[in-house]
Each structure stands twice: as C-alpha cells, then as structure tokens.
Design goal:
The complex is a heterodimer of chains A (722) and B (529). With 722 residues, chain A is of the alpha/beta class. In chain A, 37% of the residues lie in helices and 17% in strands. The two termini of chain A are 51 Å apart. Helices cover 56% and strands 10% of the residues of chain B. In chain B, helix 4 packs across helix 6 and helix 15 crosses helix 20. The radius of gyration of chain B is 31 Å and the shape is elongated. The chains are: A alpha/beta (722), B alpha/beta (529).
Amino acid sequence: MAERSFKKEVEQLRIGAGEVFRGEGILAITKALLENGVGYVGGYQGAPISHLMDVLADAEELMGELGVRFEANASEAAAAAMLAASVQYPIRGAVTFKGPVGANVASDALANLASGGVTGGALIIVGEDYGEGSSIMQERSHSFATKSQMWLLDPRPNLTSLTQTVKHGFELSEASNTPVMMLMRIRSCHVHGAFVAGENRKPELSVRDALSNPRRDTKRIVLPPYSYMHEQEKISQRLPAAMEYIRKNKLNEHFGPEQGKVGIVVQGGMYNGLIRALQRLGLADVHGETELPLYVMNVAYPVMEDEFLDFCAGKDAVLIVEEGQPDYLEQAFRAILHKAGNNPVRIEGKGMLPMAGEYTGKVMLEALEGFLRAHAADLLPARKRAPNRPEDADDVPDLSKIVPIRPPGFCTGCPERPIFAAMKLVEEELGQHQISCDIGCHLFSIMPPFELGGTTMGYGLGPASNAAFDGGGERRPVSFVGDGGFWHNGLTSSIGNAVFNKSDGVTVIVDNYYSAATGGQDVLSSRASNATKQTKNPISKAIEGIGVKWVRQIDRTYDVGKMRATIKEALSTDHEGPKVIVASSECMLNRQRREKPLMAQAIKEGRRVEKPKFGVDEDVCTGDHACMRLSGCPSLTLKMPEDPLKDDPVAHIDTSCVGCGNCGEVADEAVLCPSFYRADLVHNPSGFEKWWAGVNSKAIGWLQRRRAAKRLTWIETMEPAE
Amino acid sequence: MTQMEQILPAGQRDLRVDQIIKLAVLAVGGQGGGVLSNWIVAVAERNGYAVQSTSVAGVAQRTGATIYYVEMLPESGAQPVFSLAPAEGDVDILIAAEMMEAGRAIMRGFVTPDQTTLIASTHRNLATVEKVVPGSGISDSATVREVAEKSAKTFIAFDMEALALKAGSVISASLFGALAGSGALPFEIESYRETIRASGRGVEKSLAAFDLACEAALERRRDPEVVPPKARPLTADGPARQVKQLEALGARLAALPLPAQDMAKAGLRKVVDYQDLAYGTEYLDRLDAVAAADTAAGGAEHGFDFTLNAAKYIANAMCYDDILRVADLKTRGTRFERVAAEVSARPETLVQVTEFVHPGAAEFVSLMPRWLGAGIEKSPGLYKLIDRMVNKGRRMRSDRMVPFTMLYFMGGLRHWRRALLRHSREMAHMQVWLDTALARLPKDYAFATETLKARRLIKGYSDTHARGLGKFDRVMQGGALVAARQDAGDWMGRLIAAALADPKGEALDGALATIRSFVTPDTEITARA
C-alpha cells in the first residue's frame, strides 16, 4: 500500500475527448499514455516519479480494461529490460524511473535496447532529480541519451506540452526505430494544471495477443555482426528519420519575432523560468508573448543543426540557457558554428549563467540582464540599463547563525531510530567502527543525532561498498542496507558478494516492510497482502538461500537491548563469513495510516484498545538532553520549565507521540534517567479490568493521602489573566 | 491581431504580470503543507483564477524543510505562463508553518518589504541540532521576529499551531484561516470555508481551526509577551504546625536583599518540598551567611547578583537528584492527575503507567547508611556482586499496588536521607564549592558569581551525572588557573558555556587549552625556548 493513494484521482483518467482534465503532471502523463494506445507500462519508484508509479498502480483496474499490462519492476534495469517487448512487436511501451541514478542502473538494458532498435514506440519517462528537493548526486541524464543514441525530450512544463510530448514521443520512436527518453523535472511531476483530454485507446496489439503470435528478427538482436550493423543504422537511417520527424512536426518551438538582434535558446524544461525573468524585465506578457526571439528545445537530443543555424542567422548574439553541467548543448552548438565557419553570431551561455547549480529565479534574472546589457541594452528598462546600485542580494538579512539546518530525518516513531540508537550505544562501548550506508530512509543515520556511517555508494550497495574491508581486522566493518535496496540488487551484489568472498563484515538489513523512502510501495518482503503481487517472502530465507550461515532475525527493532546485544554478538562471534542481522519493524508512517482508522473503528464499536503515549516528568528531568542524542524524534522535544531554578530546557513529548517505545528503551539501555514514563490509555476496558483498577487505585489513593496529610502540599493559586 | 501587434514596446511591463499572485509555503515535512496548497489551489479556482501549484515530493518531506509554490491569475481564456519555483525578491505571500521556517524564507530572499505579506506561525518545531545541545541550543525566535517586521510588507504572526490544537485540528487549517484573514488574496472568506467543506475530511474541526486563525489574522493579533517564570507563592496546606513553621521561614525571606528574594522563595519551596522544613531552615541559614558576605563585598552595587545566584544554586545543590526524590515525585497524587490529563483520559477509560528506571550499584550503594556504603565501596568484589543484582532496566507499573508500594517506600526513605552516604558526599561537595565562591567574593565579585554558576553543569543521573561532575571539576580547575586575572569572571563564564556546548566536552577542552597557553609560567616558556 503506497503512502499516497490516487484512487480518487485516477477516476479522472476515464474522461473522454474534449473534456478538461485537471490535476498533477504525473496524472496527465498517465492519461496521455492511455490516449496513445500504450500496451504495457512499468517502472521503479524514486523521487520525483514515485507518485507516477503509484498512479499507475492505482490505475491498474482501468488499464486492465484497456488490455494494458502494468508491472511494478524489481529495479530500473528490469523496467528498461521490459521495453524489449517493443523490439520485435509493434506494441507501445512506457517505463519510468528516476534519473540519473535510475538510468545508471537501467543503462545496460537501455544500451541493448537502443542498439537493436524498436518497432513499437518505447518511451522512458525519467524523473530528473536535480536542484532543490533532490536527494541524490547532482548529475544530468542527458549523456545516457547521447551515448546510446536515444532521443531526449525535455518538454515545456505545462500539462498540454507534457501530454503532447507523450504522443510525439511514441510517434518519434516508431518513425526512427529508436527508444525515446522524456525528462520530467522535479516540479513538473507535481505541477497542477489543466489540459483538454482525448479518448483512451486500446493498444492495437496487446501483449496477450503478441504471445499468441510470437515473432523474431535476428537482425534486431545485439550480437555481431548485427551490432556493427546497428551502429551504422543509427547514423544512416534512424538519425535522419528522427530529424525529419522533429522538423516536420515542429517539436522545437519558436516564440517571439522571427528577427531580432539577439535571441535565446532554451531547454523546454527551463522555458517557464526564462519567461518569468523576461516578464520581470518587461520583455514578455503574462501569456509568454515576448519580443525576444526564442528557440525552445523540447528535443534536447538530437540537436537540430539546421534549425539552430537558421535561428542564429542575422543575430548578433544568442544566449543558451542550459541548466546543469557538462554544457552538452553549448558544446554542440559551438561545434556546429565552428563547422559552419565564418558565422558572426556571438554565443553566450555558461559564464553568463553559472556552470553548476539550479537556475533559480534570481540566477535567471541576473544572467538575462547581463546578457542584454552586453548585447542589446536598448531592450532593458532604463533603471536596469545603468543601475545605480546592485539590486537586492546584499540587503537580505543574514540569519544563518540563528536559523537551524533542518535536513530530513526519521519520522515520529520510526522503527529505524532504535536500530541506530543501539549502534550508537555499541560504538560508545566498543569505539568507532567503519560503517557504510545505503540509499533509503536509514541513510538519515549520517545526520545528527546519530552521525553514523561514512559512505553511500548506491542502491543495495551498502555492504558491497565495504568489500575492501571484507578481510576483517581488529574491528569488523559494519554496513547497512534497506529492504528496498536489498531486493533491488543487494541480494546479489552485496550479500552474494560477501558470501562468495567470505566477508568478515557485519550487515544490518533494515526491513520496514515497504520501499518506505519512495512512498511506501510494496516489495517482495512486505507483510501486507497485495491482490496483484506476491509479498511475504522473508529476507532471512533469501539470505540463507544465498549462503549466509550467521543470520539473526529481530522482529521488534524497538527492543534496543536486544538490538544492541545482537550487534555486539555479530561484532564478536568467532563465526567465519558474513554476519547478517535482519531488523524488522513496520514503517511507522504506513503503520499509523493502516492502524489509525482501525483503532478508531474499534473504539467506536466498544472493543478494547490500548493507546500508548510517552511522557516526561518535568521535575525529574534535569535538562541534560542525553535522551535527545539517542533519538532525534520529532515528538521528543524541549520546553522551558516553569521553575526559575532551572537554567536549561527540559524534555517534553508532544501530542504527536505514537508510543513506539524508543524513549523508554533508550533511557534503560543507556542508563539515562527515570524521567520517562509510558501511559497507556485503555479504551473500553473489561468489567474485571475496571474492578481491579479500582481496587488498585483505592489502595494507592489511600497511601497517597496518608503521606500528603503529613507534609505540606502547595496551593497553586492561579495567576490573574493579563 | 498579428503576433507583432500583441507585443509590447521595449521595456514596458505588461501590467498583468504584476497581477500574478505568487505564494510560497515553507513547511516542515509532515505538517500538511500538501493539504494547504491543495486548498489554496481550490479556493483560487473557485474564484475564477487560473492556478498552478508545484511541490517537491520525496525524502525532502521526511521531517525536513520543504516548499510548496502556487501562482494564480484571473482566468482569461488564454493560458498564462507561470513559474514553477519561487524567485528571490518576487513573492507576494509567504506562509511559514513554523517560526524558523519564516527565518529561512527571509534568508533565502523570499520576503521583501515592498511586496511580501509574511504569514508565520510563531510556534517552534525544534530541529534536531537544537535539541542535542547539553545546555540550551534553542534558536532565538525574537531575532527572527524582529527581522521579519522589517523585511515584510505585512507581517502576520501568532501561534497557529496552538489554535489548531485548540480546535482539535492540524496547522494546515489554521494557516489557511490566517491566509483568509490576512486579506492578501482577493477572495471572500466564505469561499475559503466552502473550499474546506468541499474537501470532505475532518471538515468540522478544520473549519473550527480556520475560524480561530482567520479571526486572529483579521484582528492582526499578536502573541502575548512571554513573561519569565515567577516564583510561585509560598502557600501550602498541611499539618497546622508545619504551615506555621513555613510562614516563619517565609518571613525570613524579607531579610534577604530584595533582588534575591524571589529566587530564594523558589529555592525555599524546593528544599522544603524535597526534604522537610528543617532543611528549609538550613537553606536560609546558608543564604543569610551568603547575603552578609555579599553585603560586605559591596553587593549592593552589583544588584546582589551573588546572593541571587546562591539562592538558585544552593537550592539545586541541596536538592540533588537521587532515587528517593524520583520515587517521591512519581508517587504523588498530583502527578497521577497530571498524567491522566496529558493522555486526555476520560472517566470510562483506564490509564496504565509504566515507569522506566535503571538504577546501578552506584545509586544503590550511595543510598546506604554512610558506614555501610563506604564499607562496600572498599570491597570491589561485593560492589560488583551488588551491581550484578541491581543493575538492570526495570519497568514498574506505578498504577499497580505492589510496584507502587515499592516506589512509595523508597519515597518514604527521605526521612533518613541525612544519614545516607550520598547525602554526606553531596553536602561536602557543596561546601567546597560554596567556600571557594565565598573566598573569591571580596576580591572579584564577577568571578565569585560565575563560580556559583558552575553548579549548572551538575545534572542528570548515573553516567550523565558523573559526566556533569567531571565537567564541573574541570571548569573549577580552569577557574583556579585564571583566578589572579582581572577577567577571571569572563573566563569562568566562557568555560561554563563551553562545557554546555557539547556532550563530550570537546569545546571545554579547547577553552582549557587556551587558558593553559597563557597561564603557563614564563619560566617554563623560557626554559623551552
């Protein structure tokens, strides 16, 4: 069950021709796939296209009706490989994953796919995770397209353009027998807008029908001599065919006047940002009508040489707006001009714009101003032409010493917190260890308060990235990997590798029942029943199967004591070969989503329900915050005590506490302090229970009154309200 | 109309560009920023606006800072081109779902005096880095507020989280209310309410939170000034003789220097509550002696700062944290009431309370009579045996008779506290500290006062307590090194601050190294050279 449900939204996918579709980019893309007779879809979740996978999963019923196969692929490689169906069969297929890390994983299959070429349209929707909000290394997916020769579409970020691009993507792919990559930038995935819908279409040939009539053409298989043929074919046939289609269908767009002293070339995805800068300079109206000639590259690859040269004709200078580095487009354009020879146009790009980093509103505005001041100052408003002082920037108050950093971290009640609390306690006892991390929520361990782990090398590669230390030493290397990464490729690349090489290392597999960081999608070891997927395949069985002899399964990560003892055992046992701990507890976000309505229902129906919550006795807490250093839970926070004798804020647990138990466990294990208590609120207690509680309460009350009678009890007069 | 004619003359802004309303929401992941931005989109569409919203999904939302962005313009048939991300210096409405996020927005240039209505909830959602500091690492909201007043065109700020909780809802509803009440969007308030109703879930509570915040924003309400905690009154119920004695002790407070009286009152209350009235007398006797020394040292000039700090820290030193105190506090009737209120218990529900206690041999032995405890400490074998027996985490159901009675019994042991090993140690330790401060008083008032303040470092239980004591000792040693200097007080203050900066005491080591570098005797330096 995914974190976000699109059940309601996917109903809109049924609307017919002429109706207006309102919603997010990911929904619009899904609608466009259906309108264009897609035969199968798949992919692997990851920001920013996680929700596209969720939409597809939620739309499975509708797709079934249309004869469209949906597959939640095991990895990006599996997703890309699935496009093989479009090699021999005229079936349109689309897969999605994040870029560039997903494309990294997929690139083996993508290269093979691109070499043999496709018969049916093959569309790879890549969520370009670049700039603010990204959680990965900052790279571009661009080079995957160029190295394997797949066409790269980078559409303007509005729903009409996005849906049109899906259509053209399939057609372009079929016209040139080449897979097509479509870039979805972070914000365009969730851009909310509208477009006029078309009719959904069943695929002309469904995957089921194709199975009844298998076909093969040896020439499409990547093996000599055909692979040499493919390379020639790419240049002699597929490229010209693609350029022909792009030109004819005007995939790249022109805005503004045809002629002008200066012009701007911009990636489709950066169009809105550029227009905003033009609007702010008074050079474009609200609808984007501008008086500067613009060449908008909705196709980032192949570069249309003739279109570019035509655009440059008669201009003094052209600015290239290309976000990210290396500056592939600028290099291509400069090469084109060089080859063309004697072209007087001046190219500006990187330099005027920064080489690296996101092109935010300010960056874009300043670069545009700079470009115009240098090449067409008359276009600038007077105040911009010769500014008396540099605007803004400097008067932004510096609050960096006050505003704390707030990186993402473990959620309230996260079952991974106690794992790292235990690891930190082990390190406090045995000293620092070599720890490698992996991709997933558990990577938050590198942040305060835990600050554990030195590297993250890729999904499912945590243990593999400790391979150099497999030989062991005085202290064993420790690695972490999540259940998502484990099934993605950790089983073979990490665990298999460790078994084969007789690794001495310790691996902790963090099993939270979901691919949690990407939004709670099911994985093989998920414990929930899933109507269309086989779940409940235990991780421990898989690792035993691959040859790990020392396996410890922990079914309640909140047991910090057991967790700590198990890690210590793994670090000290005489066992030769890898030591693997599977630490399993359900992702709290998903658990709460699942249990809250059930609990509310049970309370309503009069069934017995215990609701735990932790608390802190304010007068027992001394304000040292040792508990915070083993927690970082959002619900465990601080407040200033009302006692003027106390200097420092005391611990406080707010109403968001879900009673996971970490506070109490850690206070115990680390021998912190007795301030914590757990209060279980029992709804609908049984008759006996009530009677017994009454007896206890009476006895306790008697004792309390007895003592109170012999001592002073403060009378707390209320302060008059101000 | 041809395309060329549509185009404006050079450098002249399309005035409609200024009509695009740009709204950004800065929130902490999990605060419901998505719900809020959906409502904003819906209310704008309801009012005939073309709207675009963007967000960043993914791990950025896992309790980290995140941003939602909305642009809107009256619908005109043709599609406007909206930006996907906020631009520095070009945001009309900025909603910060937490005070430091308002600060972050300002820092990022999203708040400008000519343009931005800043709507901020003043509550704090502490970041981890603020919480892990052993002292106080909480960032200063007042500075952010001050800067916000200057940076925003309009600044609407009050505790929207509190209003949401009051209404049983979440902050997205009260933020939406504050937006409506701010008048920054040209929409009728009723259309916001209709938007909430149309969204379908938790409507009643959302509307209640919405209305509270809307009203507060309409009135441009501000949070009441935060007043520092005052000493609570010294009035109590109990046996008549004790009440009378307390009154007599209370009367003695008047003899103390005025600036120290409130603190002394709080201290007196604490020590009496901790032990008994005789303990209160002991406390006041100590304080009287301190006040006399303070007066002799010209304390009047310093506002009797020394006595004030002595009132605070002597009370804290006398009320050291031991198992007896914990047991006493945890078994009181008032505490049971507080816990029940905290979980919103109702008559038809039951509250079960589990205590997490983990005493070690050190605590156990220190609770023995002086002769016995000291004897056991001399025998490592016996000590280890005791540790094996007692040192484990215990969970005690304090709502059950048997565990309660055990705790109750422990709490009752306070009557014998004065005879216990721990007490003799604590009192000796306090005396050395107090004597040191008093000895410094005639020579260096500030230094003496800072010496008292070092007591702040001793807190916690078990290892934490030991670590605090260690830091205290090192700070006192550092103090001794600088005692002869004119700025000894400043150095003492720096040492205390450093000791509170991190748990391991790395900052303190640094500060001590600095001190050692300049107090090293000249002879030594010469010898080395």
